[in-house]
C-alpha cells in the first residue's frame, strides 16, 4: 500500500495491517461532523494564536538567549491519509545548531526547557499547523516518518489512526499514555486509545479532552494511569527525536 505523491510515496506498507481506514473515517468523524470540528479548530486556534502570541515571542526570545539559535524545531510527520507535513515545536534539547554557553546558562536552559515540556508549552507553535489545516486540536499524535513505517509493521490496525487529522492532544495523552514510548505494551495502549477516539469521537468528547489537557500540568492526572513496566524482549528499537518523545 503506497500513499500519494504528497505523502509517503515509495514506502511500502504491510497490506495485512493496512486496515480499513474508511471504516474508521465514518465512525464518529463523518464529513458532516468534520465541518463543525474544523470550524471550532479554526476559531480556537485563531484565538489562541492572538492571545498566546506574546507568550510565544517571550519563549522564543528566552530560548535564543539561552543559546538556541533556532528556537523553533521542525520535523516531518505523517498526517491524515498518510500526507506528510512539517510540525512546529519549540526546541527543547540542545543540538549542533546551538551556541556554546556557560555552565550556569546550560543549567538554566535545562530547567526552562523541562518546564516547557511538562507544561506542554513546547507544543504552542502547532496552533499554526492547525490554522493551516494540517492538524486538529484533538486527535492522534502524529509520528515521524521512520516511526510510522516501523509501527505500521509492528501493530495491527496502526494505520487506521490516519483516518483523522492528528492533534496537539488526544484521548491517549490525557489517559497517561504520553511521553517516551519504548515498549510494545505502551504503543499498543496508545494505539487502542487513538482508535477508540476515532470510533467514538464527537465535539463534546473533544471539549472534555481539551479541558483535561489544560488541567494536566496542574493536577497529577498523568500518574493515575501508569504505563506498564518494560518487559524483556518487548522494547522498540528507534531513534530518539529532539526531545526523546514520540508525542
Care to give the gist of this entry?
This protein has 247 residues and is mainly alpha-helical. The protein has helices at residues 21-25, 31-65, 103-119, 126-131, 145-152, 171-174, 184-200, 203-215; strands at residues 72-78, 84-90, 136-138, 167-169.
How would you explain this protein's 3D organization?
This protein is mostly helical. It has one domain. The chain has helices at residues 21-25, 31-65, 103-119, 126-131, 145-152, 171-174, 184-200, 203-215, and strands spanning 72-78, 84-90, 136-138, 167-169. Strands 1-2 form a two-stranded antiparallel sheet. A two-stranded parallel sheet has the order 3-4. Residues 1-19 and 221-247 have low confidence and may be disordered.
- State the total count of DSSP E strands: 4
Q: Tell me the β content.
A: 5-15%
Question: What is the overall number of helices?
Answer: 8
Distance between the termini: 25 Å
Strand and helix order: HHEEHHEHEHHH
Low-pLDDT parts are 1-19, 221-247
Strand order of the largest sheet: 1-2
The chain-level structural class is: mainly alpha
In helices, the fraction of residues equals: 40-55%
Main sheet, how many strands, which sense, barrel?
Answer: 2 strands, antiparallel
**Domains counted in the coordinates: how many?**
1
Q: What best-fitting shape do the alpha-carbon axes yield?
A: globular
> What is the alpha-carbon Rg in Å?
18 Å
Average pLDDT score? 80
Amino acid at each position: 500500500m503506497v500513499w500519494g505523491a504528497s505523502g509517503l510515496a515509495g514506502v511500502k506498507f504491510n497490506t495485512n495491517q493496512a486496515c480499513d481506514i474508511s471504516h474508521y473515517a465514518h465512525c464518529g468523524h463523518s464529513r458532516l461532523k468534520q465541518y463543525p470540528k474544523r470550524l471550532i479548530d479554526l476559531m480556537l486556534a485563531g484565538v489562541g494564536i492572538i492571545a498566546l502570541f506574546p507568550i510565544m515571542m517571550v519563549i522564543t526570545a528566552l530560548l535564543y538567549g539561552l543559546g538556541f539559535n533556532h528556537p523553533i524545531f521542525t520535523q516531518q510527520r505523517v498526517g491524515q491519509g498518510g500526507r506528510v507535513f512539517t510540525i512546529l515545536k519549540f526546541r527543547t534539547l540542545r543540538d549542533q545548531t546551538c551556541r556554546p554557553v556557560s555552565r550556569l546558562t546550560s543549567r538554566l536552559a535545562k530547567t526552562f526547557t523541562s518546564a516547557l515540556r511538562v507544561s506542554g508549552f513546547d507544543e504552542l507553535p502547532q496552533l499554526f499547523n492547525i490554522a493551516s489545516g494540517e492538524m486538529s486540536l484533538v486527535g492522534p499524535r502524529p509520528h515521524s516518518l521512520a516511526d510510522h513505517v516501523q509501527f505500521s509493521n509492528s501493530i495491527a490496525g496502526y494505520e487506521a489512526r490516519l483516518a483523522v487529522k492528528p492533534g496537539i492532544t488526544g484521548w491517549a495523552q490525557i489517559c497517561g499514555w504520553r511521553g517516551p514510548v519504548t515498549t510494545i505494551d505502551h504503543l499498543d495502549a496508545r494505539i487502542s486509545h487513538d482508535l477508540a477516539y476515532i470510533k467514538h469521537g464527537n465535539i463534546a468528547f473533544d471539549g472534555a479532552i481539551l479541558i483535561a489537557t489544560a488541567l494536566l500540568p496542574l493536577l497529577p492526572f498523568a500518574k493515575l494511569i501508569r504505563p506498564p513496566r518494560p518487559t524483556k524482549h518487548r522494547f522498540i528499537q528507534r531513534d530518539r527525536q529532539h526531545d526523546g518523545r514520540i508525542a
